[in-house]
Design a protein that fits this description.
- The structure is a single chain.
- Helices cover 41% and strands 14% of the residues.
- It is an alpha+beta fold.
- The chain has one domain.
- Strands 1-2-3-4-5 form a five-stranded mixed sheet, sandwiched between helices.
- The radius of gyration is 20 Å and the shape is globular.
- The termini are far apart.
């Protein structure tokens, strides 16, 4: 194994360490053949699932979907059927699965022996997560990197630093990747629920006080470096408060109205499909028909 070389001085934080680790591990001269073989094999099944029809399992609230907007969650609990995604969307999902698996292989190939990692780690959701027919009861986190030798790790990451870090990879188009690198988490719309997902998983693993990393992969320009951004504990905890309130509202059958747009105003148009924007929300048509709730 060709581990990430020791830096001249420790990386100032987990984000910069992970960026260097990912870039080092993806080099052809570093990537471990057995490791990449196992991950490309895993990717085959995910790609096939992305490109072929899935058996209809129904629509559920889960950490990775349905938490971004209180009304979206309300519609799921109410039993509404979302508008279908474009049939061509499978290629986007397939590329995402492939880049995730290559990223796991890069991390594993370059990880120094003073760290350990778990990828696609199953997570039991926290006690406050409702046991309800419209809520999935388990989830999976992309990556958890842990320190197993404190002295060795201190040569890579400036101390004090958390002994464990939750990392969620997101594949992004070029524009989204550029926006991600400068985004002010908690102060700008999180249209796809990335912060909510991180908050639930960090709470599940008991690491919310350490924050978590949202790592953007530019799928349009693959030579671009990884963009790992720390989402602070304060942002995650605030998001958790919002998610819990939205869950209680949904379970009570209360229609909050177009909640995402009410919070973010015109900045939400691109997601909600307003002001001539296409929109990405699968309930945008129903939401427009019920502007003030029912």
């Amino acid at each position: 194994m060709k581990s990430l070389p020791l830096p001249n001085k420790p990386y100032p934080d987990w984000s910069r360490f992970i960026a260097a680790l990912w870039d080092h591990g993806r080099k052809q001269t570093v990537m471990n053949k057995a490791i990449i073989n196992s991950h490309t094999y895993r990717a085959q099944s995910a790609i096939c699932g992305s490109m072929t029809p899935r058996e209809d399992e129904g629509t559920f609230v889960r950490p990775s979907g349905g938490l971004q907007c209180a009304r979206y969650m309300h519609y799921i609990v109410r039993g509404e059927t979302p508008d279908p995604m474009p049939e061509q969307i499978g290629m986007t999902f397939a590329v995402g699965h492939l880049l995730h698996e290559i990223s796991y292989a890069a991390v594993r190939s370059g990880l120094p022996p003073c760290f350990s990692c778990e990828f696609e780690k199953p997570v039991d959701l926290p006690d406050w997560w409702p046991e309800h027919e419209k809520f999935k009861q388990a989830g999976t986190v992309d990556l958890v990197i842990s320190v197993c030798d404190e002295l060795g790790a201190a040569e890579y990451i400036a101390q004090p630093a958390p002994a464990k870090m939750l990392v969620d990879f997101k594949t992004m188009g070029g524009y989204s990747h550029r926006e991600h690198k400068k985004k002010m988490f908690g102060l700008e719309p999180d249209a796809f629920g990335y912060l909510a997902q991180l908050a639930v998983y960090a709470d599940s693993l008991g690491v919310i006080d350490d924050g978590a990393i949202l790592a953007g992969i530019n799928r349009d320009l693959l030579m671009q470096p990884l963009a790992p951004r720390l989402v602070t504990a304060e942002v995650l905890k605030a998001e958790l408060v919002r998610v819990k309130a939205a869950i209680l509202s949904a379970l009570a059958g209360e229609d909050p109205g177009p909640a995402f747009h009410m919070i973010w105003g015109p900045r939400a148009d691109f997601y909600c499909g307003r002001a001539g924007k296409k929109g990405y929300c699968n309930f945008k048509r129903l939401c427009a028909e019920e502007p003030f709730g029912v």
